[in-house]
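Example for tutorial group B:
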């Protein structure tokens, strides 16, 4: 069961510095919903992007909303948010963390009735699945998605999962990474499986193995492979399903599309969906070694390829990476392999303590062509979206498309939403909540690393 109420997350230590640009790349005006265009036009007309300019403008909208809702309002953001949104959200008393801690915020703070999240849709939906009936969850931009989740939509995964369930029955268990829709979390729950995050995937997979289950790990093949390696599993007993960008769900288990076909699936201990994070797949062992040879300690996110994770000094979730930076002693030289906005925020905080931080892909050597990039879809949440969402909610005019209910499926390009009926949503919540609560129980009972 979900644990009783607990206080909000502690401060991340992220601060806005005077004169420092808020480095959001403005979205074209036609990316904004009609209701948000007036706020975007005002923002774009500001003379610069420094806190001295943006904060008074934001205050005009955020503070009246805070006065209106009082302690019932909760602002949330993920570490990866661009445009310094993490700093803005925390400045206004919000909570900043990784996806695991964010998912628990509504359930563990029942006094918060209006939850506004600046992050991607699957994160807001996870909050909604665990929320109490009298809590509303809103996202500042419903078109903020995740490339990995976009390659594992339910219409792609269900046909393959159905074939696997038909072949293996109750011996198959689905483990759904947090970076999935509620519909896939419900699939995990219906098979007796659980959700996992990058920080507890090893605990969840180990729990499944102890039940002698064949595991379908959705969606990130790299996290699945790195988790198997961490647990000492035989990597020859992993089968990676075809790239969903190429094949979608247009194949059968026996048609030769899967390497090794049915014999490989039958002997597999874990089957990996073929999705991945575009931000993390650029990292390589050669990049890691380049920095290490120059005296740097390298830590990477486990959505990175196995070779990079094995070569690094350590790997872990965004919470792990942030702790590495914040605990570093003066004079430390650290390289981080993860999303670009996160690394820039980390470097800004660290330099005031004489800690040197670099992005793994930002190698000043022409032999390496990559550069550290941010999560472009998360960056769709910017100051105009935050100002507009809060101001519209204060007026009682929150756009329905921004309201997040369990089971919602939003097209990241068009913004078109597919919403379940009340009966379908109730069934989904039962299964999805079960998968999340299994994760919580496993996480809180198991060792931390």
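The residue assignment follows.
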């Amino acid at each position: 069961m979900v644990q009783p109420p607990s206080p909000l997350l502690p401060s991340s230590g992220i601060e806005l510095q005077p004169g420092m640009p808020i480095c959001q790349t403005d979205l074209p005006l036609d990316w904004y919903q009609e209701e948000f265009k007036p706020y975007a036009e005002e923002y774009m007309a500001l003379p610069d992007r420094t806190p001295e300019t943006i904060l008074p403008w934001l205050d005009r909208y955020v503070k009246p909303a805070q006065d209106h809702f009082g302690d019932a309002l909760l602002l949330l953001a993920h570490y990866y948010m661009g445009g310094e949104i993490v700093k803005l959200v925390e400045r206004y008393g919000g909570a900043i963390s990784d996806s695991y801690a964010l998912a628990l915020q509504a359930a563990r703070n029942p006094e918060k009735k209006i939850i506004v999240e600046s992050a991607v849709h699957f994160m807001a939906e996870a909050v909604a699945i665990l929320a109490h009936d009298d809590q509303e969850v809103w996202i500042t931009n419903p078109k903020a998605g995740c490339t990995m989740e976009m390659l594992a939509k339910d219409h792609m995964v269900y046909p393959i999962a159905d074939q696997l369930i038909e072949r293996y029955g109750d011996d198959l268990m689905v483990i759904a990474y947090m970076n999935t829709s509620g519909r896939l979390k419900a699939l995990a729950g219906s098979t007796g499986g659980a959700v996992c995050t990058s920080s507890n995937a090893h605990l969840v997979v180990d729990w499944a193995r102890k039940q002698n289950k064949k595991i379908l790990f959705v969606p990130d093949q790299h996290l699945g492979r790195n988790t198997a390696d961490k647990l000492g599993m035989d990597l020859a007993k992993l089968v990676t399903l075809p790239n969903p960008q190429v094949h979608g769900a247009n194949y059968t288990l026996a048609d030769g599309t899967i390497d090794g076909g049915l014999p490989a699936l039958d002997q597999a201990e874990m089957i990996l969906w073929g999705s991945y994070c575009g931000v993390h797949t650029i990292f390589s062992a050669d990049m890691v070694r380049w920095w290490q040879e120059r005296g740097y300690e390298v830590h990477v996110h486990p959505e990175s390829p196995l070779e990079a994770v094995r070569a690094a000094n350590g790997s872990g979730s965004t919470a792990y990476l942030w702790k590495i930076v914040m605990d570093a002693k003066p004079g430390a030289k650290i390289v981080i392999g993860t999303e670009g906005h996160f690394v820039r925020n980390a470097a800004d905080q660290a330099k005031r303590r004489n800690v040197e931080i670099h992005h793994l892909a930002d190698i000043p050597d022409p032999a390496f062509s990559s550069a550290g990039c941010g999560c472009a879809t998360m960056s769709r949440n910017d100051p105009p979206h935050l100002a507009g969402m809060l101001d519209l909610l204060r007026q009682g005019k929150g756009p329905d498309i921004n309201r997040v209910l369990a089971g919602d499926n939003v097209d990241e390009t068009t913004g078109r939403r597919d919403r379940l009926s009340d009966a379908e949503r109730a069934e989904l919540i039962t299964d999805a909540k079960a998968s999340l609560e299994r994760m919580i129980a496993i996480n809180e009972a198991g060792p931390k690393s």
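Confidence is low (pLDDT under 50) at residues 1-7, 19-24. Compare this with the pattern of hydrophobic and polar residues in the output above.
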